[in-house]
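> @MW can you paste both from yesterday?
MW: sure, first one:
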Amino acid sequence: MPRGLQLSFIVVGLVVIGILLFYIGRQSRVLNENRMRQKKAEEFQAKRRDEMIESIRIIALAVEEGQVEHSEACLRLKGLLDYVAPELLDQAPYRVFQEVHDKIQHMPTHRARKATDAKLVQKMDKERFAVERQHAEDVRKAATAIRHYRFD
């Protein structure tokens, strides 16, 4: 084989090796960036979950100490548990959060409540207070249980 042809093959081989090394390096950087993004996302989700668990415990303590209405606590706890541990809403004693939520979720809150007719608000308040009285003991027991629950 002529020497010029051999050198041409060697040069082409080195160019191909160079291109492959560049591609491998680029893919390695992309892979590392994706791993870092994934790690940051997992850390963010873990922090968010821990903050939600802390919120659950604070709300439960507020229920135990009578600092929050049971209906509001149930709405908030149900919302938090939907993200943290939705399976608990089907188990006793935590099921009461779902039950109270289902009975009062149709009632307006915040701005919508302010915009609603006063007579209708009074009627809904009576309904809400009746639901709270009906489930008061169960809500307190569930709040105590959820405050001591180990979220793993």
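MW: second:
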Amino acid sequence: MKRSPLLVKLAALTAALLLVALGALHLFWIFGGQWGLVAATPLVDGQPVLEVSARPGFFGLVFLCFMGAYVLLCRGGLLGQALLPGFYSGGTWALIVLLIARAVGDFRSVGLFAPKTDTPFSWYESHLTIPLCLGLAALCLIVAVFSPRRDPE
């Protein structure tokens, strides 16, 4: 299988930029921003399923977005690898699994198999979030499969 350094670098950079943007948007919401929040909040029986606040879970999501961007940039050869040799490879595969899991969803309120409702969230989930997660997973897969192998130091 021929490895393409340019393809890997473009995929890593694109996915990293998207993850940083998603992390920044979630930080904006955590600190009280309202833009886009209505479309990003799933409703069940007219009530929000989750509240965006300064809960540790949302900070964890922001951390995962930023750390995922770092892992992709390192695995794609755009930054130096300072941690354990398997960290970047394993982290890239973990990102793929997490993004596909988010696209599949919980079968109740988010994801491919959630019931479709007449809400802004449902429309954006189907037309933006799920394709974005699957597209990011595909970019991560390119980085995971086609990035040059690096010998442990």
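> thanks! The mean pLDDT is 84.
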